[in-house]
Each structure stands twice: as C-alpha cells, then as structure tokens.
Give the backbone structure.
Amino acid sequence: MILTLHDFWSAEAGCVILQPYDMRMGAGTFHTATTLRALGPEPWNAAFVQPCRRPTDGRYGENPNRLQHYYQYQVILKPSPSDIQELYLKSLAAIGINPLAHDIRFVEDDWESPTLGAWGLGWEVWCDGMEVTQFTYFQQMGGFDCKPVAGELTYGLERLAMYIQGVDNVYDLAFNASGVSYGDVFLENERQMSKWNFEVADTDALFDLFAKAEAECRNALSAGVPIAAYEQAVEASHVFNLLQARGVISVQERASYMGRVRDLARSSCEAYAAKMTPEWEAKYPGWSLV
Amino acid sequence: MADFLLELRCEEIPARMQPKAKEDLARLFADALAKAGLTAGSVETFATPRRLALIAKDLPLATAAVSEETKGPKVGAAPQALEGFLRKVGLTEEQLTERDGVYFAVVEKPGRETAEVLAETIPAIIRAFPWPKSMRWGAASLSTESLRWVRPLSGIVALLDGAVVPCEIDGIASGRTTMGHRFHHSGPVEIANPQAYIETLRGAHVIVHFSERCQLIREGATKAADEAGLTLVADEGLVIENAGLTEWPVPLLGRFDETFLDVPSEVIQLTARVNQKYFVCEDESGKLANAFICTVNIDPIDPAVVVDGNRKVLAARLSDARFFWEQDQKTPLAVHAKKLARITFHEKLGTVADKVERVAKLARWLCEEGIVAGDPALAEQAARLCKADLVTEMVGEFPELQGLMGGYYAAKEGLQQEVSYAIRDHYKPVGQGDDVPTAPVTVVVSLADKLDTLFQFFLIDEKPTGSKDPFALRRSALSIAALVLRNGLRLPFRHALDYCGDEEAWRFEKLPESAWTAKCGKSRADLEAAGFRPDNDEQARGMLLGWPTGLARDAVVDFLIDRLKVQQREAGVRHDLIDAVFALGGEYDLVRLLARVHALQAFVTTEDGANLLAGYKRAANILKKEGWRGIEGEISQTGEEDPLAMVDDPDLAPVIAAKMADRHALTDQPSYTPEPAEKALIDALDAAAPRAADAVEAEQFADAMAALATLRAPIDRFFEEVTVNADEAKKRAARLALLARFRDAVHRVANFSRIEG
C-alpha cells in the first residue's frame, strides 16, 4: 500500500518521496517537510510515511482501532493543485478503494494547531463512515499567512488497510503474505507502551526532559539554527503529551505548558522564516513574508 | 422576459453552512437586482455540498431607461462654477436646459441589457459573499489578496435563457458546463438553459433541491426502520445535516452488536448522532434497538458492504464509549469529586470543588430550615457529588451528558435513589418549558447550585448587561423562580443569601494573582506592603472585589424579582396587576407575591372589583387634587401619589405603620355627627380593613379581595351622598382623612393606583 502511494504521488504530482522524521511526534504534520516547508513561496511536493505517537490514545491493545503508535501517510502539495481532490480520489482507487462500492465523503473538519500557530480549512474524508484521511488547506503556519497555500493529505494507513483487507480489528491486519499479522508485530508493543505511558514513565525525569528541551530550543534559536530549535520544540511537545498521559498536569498547568510549547514552536518557525526570507524574496520579487 | 441560472460550484461546502448560504445568495442577488432596477418574477435557491445555485424567473431583458436631472449653478453665476458643473456632468453649455434662471443637466440613461447587469453582478456577489469562514487556495494564493471562498471555487454556470452570461473572476470564466455526482457521473454536464437545470442534474445523480433531499432522507429512514419492524427516532437536525452531506442521499439500516445496549441509551444515541450522523431506532416497547441508519451518498454496488463498514466504525465508537462507561465506574463518584479541585470554576471564584463545598452547605441548610422538605444528609451528599461526573471520561467525551452520567454512576454505586435522581436532574430546569424538578433532594440541590451561581457572580460584579449574559444568569434566575413556584417553597431569599455570603469561604489564598491586579490594580505583595491583611475578611472582600456582600445580596433579590416580572408578563399575567402588587415592596416571598397577583387578577375582572377600582381612583384623585397631605404628610417625600407604597424598607415599614395607626385612631371618630353614607363607610372600613389585613396576613388573598369588595357599595354611596369639599374645615379634613383611610385599606392588598382602567 505504501509503495503504491509512493508510486502514485511521485508519478502524478512529482512528489519527492521522503523517509519518516527520526523523532517521536504526534502527527505527520510535525515533520519539517510539512511545517517548515509550508512557509515561503517555493513550490514543494512531498510524500512520506510518519510514525505517530499519541500516548493518551493507548488502550493496552484492547481497542480494535485506537493505538498509541500508528502510521500516517502524508502528502504535501504547495501550491495546492486545482485537481487535488481528484488526485486524492485516484490515489484511493490505486490502493483498491472503489468509490461506488464504498461511500466516500468530504465532511467539514477544520484543522488548527495552536502549538504550531497554524490553521487550515478542509475535511475529514470518510470511507463508509470512518475517517480515513485528513485533508487540509493550510492558511497559516507559525503565525504567518501561507503564501501560497499548501494542500495537506494525511492518510490513516491502518484504517485504510482495515477497509481494504476487510478486517474488524487492526491487530488482525495481514502484515505480509506469509501470515504475519499487525498484532504479531505491534500488539505486545501497544500493551507495554500503554502501560509505560499511563503508569510507569518517571514523571520527574519527564519534567526534567521538558525543561531541557525548552532550554536547548532557546540555545539553538540564539545560535541561529532554527531547524535544530524546531526539533527541540517537537521533543518538548511529545514530552508534554507523555506528562498528560501520566495525569500529572492539572487543568490550570495544562494551559501554561501548552503555551510554553507553542512559544517554542512559533519562535522556531519565525526564526526559520526570518532566516529564509532574504533568499525567498530574491527568488520571488514582490513576495514578502507578511 | 427571460430566466436566469447561476451555479457556483466548489469543493464540499460544510453542511451546517448551506441553509444560510442559500439565504445569503438570495439576498445578495435581490439587492443587486433592486439596485439595477430589475425585478424577477420569482427567485429560488439551491444548495448541495458541491454547488450553490439560484434560478430567477421572468427577468426583463433590459433595465428601464431613466433620465437623471442634476441641478447646476444659477444662470449668470461665475464662469468657473459653470465650467466645474459642465466637467462634472460631462456636457457642453448648449446641452444644458434652463429653468427659473437655473441650469439643469439632463442625462438620459438608456436601459441596459440584463445580461450586462448580471455579468457585473456575479463577481460582485462572489466577492461580497459572507461565509462564516473562508479560505485562499492554489497558485493565486501566493498573494493574500487572492479570491476567498468557503472552499476552492471551481466553476460558474451563468445562463440567461439559453445564453451564457460571460463573466470571469480570478481566472474562473462562466459557462454552461458543470459536474454531476462525484462518483455516479464523473464527466462534465452541459446545461442547456435554466429550465433544464434541475432535471439535467437529476440525470447526473444530483438532487439540487435541499428540501427534496431532506424529504428523501426522512422518508427513506422511516421506511428502512419500518422494514426492520422498528420505529425511527425522528431527528430533524440530523435530516438537515445529512442533506448537507449528500447529493444523492440513500438511507441504509444496519445493526450493531446487542451487547452494546448495556451502555446507557443516551450515550449510544449521542455516539451515533454526533460522531457518525446516524439515526437510531426504537423497538415496539419504546426501547433503543441495536440498529442505526446511515445516509450514504451513492447507490452502492453492494449496500451490505457499505453498511458493514459503517457498523465497524460505530462498533469502535461504542467500544470506546463502553470503555469510558466501565472505566468511570471503577472510581466512586466521591473520588472523582476530589478532582474538581483542579477545575477552575471562574478565575475569581475558585475551583468547582469550592463551588461544590458552598452548594453542599447551602443545600443542607435549606433542608435543616425546613425550606425544602428534603433529608439534610442526603441533600448534602447529592450536592457534594453532583458535579463529580464533569471529570469522568464519558462527560469529557460528551459534555451534554453532564448530570445524566453522574446519575447513572450514582445508581450503579448503589447510592440512594433520591441522591442519584438529584445528581441526574440538578441542572434542571434548563430554560423555559423544561421539566421543573419536584423531588425534594433534587429541588434543593438545583436551587442551591443556582443561588450560589447567581450570588457569586453578582459578588464579583459580573451582572448581565443588555444582551450580554455570558454566565446565563438570567436563565439561572428564571430557573430559581420556577423551582420556588412549582414547589411552593417559602424561601426567604435575603436570609438564604446572607447564609451563602457568610458561610461561603473566601479563598483569598487561592485566588490567582491576576484577580488581585484586575480588581485592585496592584499585586497582592504591594497590597500587603500597603497594610492589607488577608485574614481580615471584610477588608479583603472590599478591596478585592469592591463589591460588598450586602449590596450583592440586594442586587440578586432585585434581579430575581425583575426576572419574575418579565416571566409573568410573558406568561400572560397583566403587567399592571403585577406592578400593583410588586409596588407594595418589602415582599420577597415569590409564592406569596404571585398568589396575591393571581387573586387580584381574579378580583378586578369582577363587577365589584371594577367598581371598587373606580371608587379608589376617584378617592385618590380627590386626595391628589386637594394636595392632601393629612396625617401622613411628614413621610410623603417621594412625590409618588401614594407615599406608603414606596416605603419598602422592611425595618421602617412597621414603625411607620404603628405611627399611622395611632394617628388614624384620632381621626377615625369625627368630632361631628357624620352623615349616614359617611357613617356607613366608616363602619364598612372598621369591618373590612382588619379583615383584609388579617386575610393578607393569613395569605388568604381571595378573602382579602372579598373584604375589599364589601367596600364597594359604601364608597359608591359616599360619593353619591356626601360632599367631601364641605365648607366646614373640620368636616372637609375628616372626610379627606376618611378617603385616605379607604385608600390605605385598599393598599394593604395592592397598590390600585398601578391598575389600568
């Protein structure tokens, strides 16, 4: 399925095929190929798989489709092509979803990430009532208007696979043709990681990690390396999610922690945009960041 | 005459925006026509997820010619003025006409072709369209000035009869080509003319009429349920939402695993509705059935496949709901309640746990005082647990289940039924028309919760103003009134609020720093440096809130009375009668107030009542005309015609009443021989006044009215036979005093001066 999507998007939209970002993150959107590349005037088409970690979604392997670790397939197309919906539907057909056999719908779902200072309008795409893709036209990123707007497609790979294979439970998915299931690969991981996320992780160490990531982000910012700073913001964001799962952040503190993560992410995006702007303006006369 | 079709095609429009978008399109189009001087025979609008359309019938082919006259300078005015005028109107001097020594420019504006007007109108409508949220897209979005629409705009069909109305906006040119159903008809569709639009698209699997799609869904869902031997749970909101999500709606029924029915039916229904937009069904006994109806947008090759897919999604949702349901039950409500200390109720009012603490105390007190006939211990227990479900997983997922889930969990825990019912229903009544609780423990928790909310927000001066009522305090006040009236509660508001105020623990230590600076303009440290002592409650309250509790208490009571008045007026009680009773003042027992209003309403509509009112008005007029200050002169300071009516100070009123009684005693027996009619009125008053007063005291308001009714004949006779304005000063004074006595006796029941008629 991943290979089909790679072939499709590189052939149909000239996407560069990238590898997953090698850090723990909550969504493919955090990949620099999405966030940082959504800034600036240059065209950018990319597709990649991103493993996602959402500690609070863990269900100890007992829910048929909720996981604390799963895979997203991300496509980013900047500027958004006028036939982006048709391309997307063709990609579904390519992986075996016939739109006359399955009910495909575009249901309003606007996307907002205060953490990234980003928002966009779009839909969640339903396949027989299940959300299989998040489809967003980015309007702002890092607090800046997207000029031009990028279209982002995020496929939920496990969910799509469940449809294609006709299984009810994610752990029953066939991972290959020789009898290895998704459960064989990931079930024990889900059990242990859910336990660690919710019950075991040393919260003092996590608070410490958060503080260190925050400090390192500032350090990188002051050294003029915003991509490195951004990585630390991603790290802080994930540590914050772990602290949430451990239930040690109160409602009041939650807002304050989110504010701190947001500051890091925004500052990194701003610094990146500021650093790149002379180059962008030179290549695109008349273009300006704000 | 010609018909006009406009179709604006775009990527999927959010369902919730479609009904309003239809209205906006009709309005913008009508405005544009009116501006051009055009009228259409009829205008109809259409919306589907992928298009917004309009058909205007019987448009004239051109606008009417108009001649516009502009007044210019006087003949013989300075040449510069004339030159300026000519430049402005674009004419030469010879073309001007002259009338009464003034130049006029007459410009004949020929009629314009309607097609030309429409070609200008279309881009203007698109640019002015008020979408709640709009976006930029594509290569043009390199600039932030690019066209905005709800989702990318992809095509415009504009036809005046068979001809394309040519226009263009941001590179999108109008034409006659549109698209059919996304999957059933993937190629372009040519529209021959406006008349063919609806049927051409129907042929391409698109039902353009929003209302027709609603009808298809309603009927299809009902039929699917019937065929399964079930009854559809009607849900018009879902019908409309599904109509906004489909161009070719097909309702399909599926079944989910029966074991999910262990989860409360409200949870299942909400899961199906909110997350999946499915209808649910009931079996013949009225219980929720293990069935759902989804509305799909295709005629599927195999409906069973689509239904099964939807079933899986619902199953996953329901297993999540069951997970929450089971998880929440592992923790007793009392333990959940402890987590409320983490939830801020309001920045200046502490946490929800603080609120719960206050409500529990108040609820217990209301029972202990016998104001509500509930068990104090149960009341306190229910109050302590009533907000606990706010921190459960289920309410986190479905906030609208607050209360209800707490009730379920309490029942599962084996708590007493009174307690679980109170937890379940303590938000009630929510708005007018909602059920008003009557179970005592429920009543007391609901009442305490709302009284506390009202009082606390008044304490921090967050009163509703105009249309702003962010904390829904008006609704709280109405709910309090409804609870009190429905249950006949004799609630001494001032006392209860004093209790709230005195017992409520002001948690200064817990107040956020921002509260100090917001109210005092200084940080707490600065305040302490300036001599502020946090252990001095009164000082702290005064400084921090600038809003003494006594004032807040009075304001709450006034607010409650005020809301009650509004509510009674809306309920059809004559406002003048309400005013007549409320004007007596000093009365904060809502039950008694309304009983009196109702008795008064019954009385004034009788013949006796009407005549007594006439007699009262005559007496009051004479007293007013004579400027009679009489025995009550010294307290007549308000300028109101009846000073006593304004004395609503509860402390002062009895003092004045006693003083008045002394003085009346002196004048009750005149020093001359009264005329028979005069004597009759004195006797009637001697009998009726105490009877009316006693009846009011005993809250027998119908009796009080009956006592007043006995005055009707004597007062009529008095006016017929007795000259008030007698020559003898002492007779005159005595008769005026007698009329005043009559008036006062009436006022013991209601201030008749406020009654109309």
Residues 502-510, 631-647 of chain B have pLDDT under 50 and may be disordered. The CA atoms of residues 681 and 714 of chain B lie 5 Å apart. The radius of gyration of chain B is 37 Å. Chain B touches chain A through 51 residues (CB under 8 Å).
